[in-house]
Amino acid sequence: MKAQTSIMAVVLAGGQGRRMGADKAGLTIGGQSFLEKIAGELAGFGEVLVSVAAAGAPRLAGCRNVEDVYKGCGPLSGLYSALSVIDTEALLAVSCDLPLFSRELGAYLIAQLDAEVDAVVPVTAGRIHPLCAVYRKRCAAVFKQQLEQGDLKLRNALMRLNAKYVEITDGEFAEMLDKNINTRADLETLGAKDHKS
Known about the structure:
Blueprint: E1 7-12, E2 28-29, E3 32-33, H1 34-42, E4 48-52, E5 63-67, H2 74-85, E6 90-95, H3 103-111, E7 119-124, E8 127-128, E9 132-136, H4 139-148, H5 154-159, E10 163-167, H6 171-178, H7 184-190
Parallel strand pairs: 1-4, 1-6, 4-5, 7-10
Antiparallel strand pairs: 2-3, 6-9, 7-8, 7-9
Helix pairs in contact: 2-4
């Protein structure tokens, strides 16, 4: 039987939502903000962190904010910053624009993490989803080096890791990954609404 890996979780909420024109973490579905819903699904995986761009970001009850170490450097910085503070072997990361994410999907991804693997990244129809993935703490060194070099592409970082790509064949899990909300049109399709509206 495979040994249980100690896990923490992070919601990546440091983006500026340029295409949306609003903070995506604050958009709502079923009466909850995206951030609240995803954090609730992650509650079973140890302490839940929230990756934020800067100090002073609103705090979600029961979660700890982690400020980006490298400012304006996108999700790679958010991942690095979260990995830098965890005291567990690995981190389950979920972008705040995936409101359909479920704890079952998280548990499935964690179960794919073998001892020699640095990261577990789901794939749907040839599309990789590095912002809903599991990363070992040791990935922080690679991310830091890449950030220092000014290369902010997470895909390039993955090429330097022993990443395990997991093809998602479960239709429900695939929909959770594919329904990332980036634009107003995406939001309308989802049937959610901006918290301001």
